[in-house]
Each structure stands twice: as structure tokens, then as C-alpha cells.
Amino acid sequence: ALMSGDLELAASELAEARDLHHELGSAAGEAHCLERLAEVRIAEGDMHTANALLDQALPLARWSMLSMHLLQRIYGTMITAAADPSRARAIVDRAESTMGLNDACQFCSVMLAVPATIACARSGDLAHARHHLAIAERSAKLWDGTAWEAALTEARAHLAVAGGDGRAALLFDEAA
Predict the structure, then answer these.
(1) How high is the pLDDT of residue 101?
(2) From residue 137, how far is each of 14, 63, 75, 99, 140 by CA, in Å?
(3) pTM over 0.90
């Protein structure tokens, strides 16, 4: 429902799933539902509620058995929901300082690396943007044929804008 744009149905289904996971004591499932519910709120333009949901999801994910998958997703969504580029950049730093070596999944790293690339590029930190882009590129190869390819191209476009590269518009078009 979320991917097809039916935000009302997505919110309803995710809220029900969140409640069921909570009743079962499944912290990982609850955290994932909260993160996806935050994505719905972002799509609706309600960043305040999105951030509140992500703040609930983070501690649940941190100590769950699936933390290495969920943390990258949650921090990536937190970056997307940030109020401004400097706040987004601060969340990149927070994610890097919080996550340990065992908190990284090669598949899931794209979920943090793409938003981190964009946040760093928007804040003018091109070195870190390139660093995160390299991580995103390695991870996106594992997701061949998915929307992550478009997200990666969008991240490259943001880096191009920040670096004054005239190909930015072409990259944005390609991503779309």
C-alpha cells in the first residue's frame, strides 16, 4: 500500500501490525512497523510525527536480534525526516558514532548510505558524501534491478549539484 501510494491503507495496516508485534513482544517487528509508519508520515509531509515514530523505533531496534538490519533503515529515515540540511548532517554523525562494526549489513547499508550521501552533499561535506556514496554503490550491487539503483543515481545527482557538476539535471532525470 505504501509503495503504491495508498497512504491511508498503509498507515492503517502498519499501525495494526505495530500493535500486534507489540502484543507479541517482538521488538524488531514493532521497530520495523514504526519505521515504515514514519515513511508514511514523511510522504504525508508530517515530519514531526515521523520523527516521534522514529524515536520510538530506535531503542527497540537497537537491542533487537535484527539490529544490524533495522538501525541502518531507521537512521536513514531519520535523515530523510530531518528538518533541515544541518540537522540531517548531524544525524549522519549520530548514526556513525552509535553504530558498531556488528551493526552493519552489506545489503541494508544502502538504506543509510543513500540518505547520508544526500545529507552530506547538501551540507557541503563532499568528502563524506563520496565516502557514503561508495558504501551505497557496494550495497546497491547486491540489489540489482531494484529501486535502489534510482536512489543511488539520485544520490549521485545531489553530489553533482554540491560539486558544481553540470550533469546533475541529467542524473535527476535518470533517477526519475
Answers:
(1) 73
(2) 30, 28, 18, 20, 5
(3) yes
